[in-house]
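Here is a typical protein record:
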Amino acid sequence: GKGASDPNYLIGLGSYDITGPAADVNMMGYANIEQITSGLHFRLRARTFIVAEPGPQGSRIAFVNLDACMASQLVTIKVLERLKARYGDLYTEKNVAISGIHTHAGPGGYLQYVVYIVTSLGFVRQS
């Protein structure tokens, strides 16, 4: 079988700015409506790592690491919808993993769960 040192893997890396609103948004996960962002210290990024076997039938996996508290079913579903529209069945829930670094220093309002929506004063599309 193929191992981690096999030179026949293809490796892809990508980074995308996901900063969202820099001010006047509740910070993720504090559950304190008065904890509002008031500026920008660092830009937030989504970093993607893809490992694939060569060829059209080669297996692959995509791992996305968000500079956000967490991902969610809503985030994952929307990402998979966009991937399907662009790449067909190349990326699915079986080979895409999305994870957050669990920071509370970024904006909230991007999860579909009631507790998070209440403390973020609603869904914030830019987040």
Q: What stands out?
A: The CA atoms of residues 80 and 92 lie 6 Å apart. The beta strands are 10-17, 23-26, 36-38, 45-52, 60-66, 96-100. The chain has a mean pLDDT of 88.
